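Sanity check

After download, print the first record. It should look like this:
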Amino acid sequence: MGASACDPIVCEGLRFGRLITEYINPPSLFRSRDHGFSQAVAASGTRTLYLSGQTAWNASKQLVGGTDLADQARPAFRNVETVVEASGGTIRDVVSLRIYVVDYGPEKAEAVGKALRESFSGPAKPATTWIGIVSLADPGFLIEIEATAVLE
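Expected structure tokens:
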């Protein structure tokens, strides 16, 4: 990555091997890092990984977590981490998330937010969008997470 227009107040740059990632959080916007994500992420890796939507299915296609959103969110985030690790990366290589939640409303924010903060507890916070939807591919799914990771 060449010269950066990143003001140290606005973003934090992290180096993972040759990969340089900047987490951009302008002070004129709300403190998204407190909620587990960044406003934008700039990454300089050479390999981009696009994950299919991850749900709370286990290896046997059994739904983990029953009908509780929080209990489905944790394994869905673990599945994101598993796919990234199987590709040679770590959870901190994830630069973007799209989180789909069935019948989303404000009362569901804490369940999803807690799992997000637990999964991204370090300084690397991906850019994130939450999307409320009517349903997912399986009627039992309450959450599905798409991710993009940039690997070295």
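If your output differs, re-run the checksum step. Summary of this record's structure: The first strand starts at residue 11 and ends at 16.
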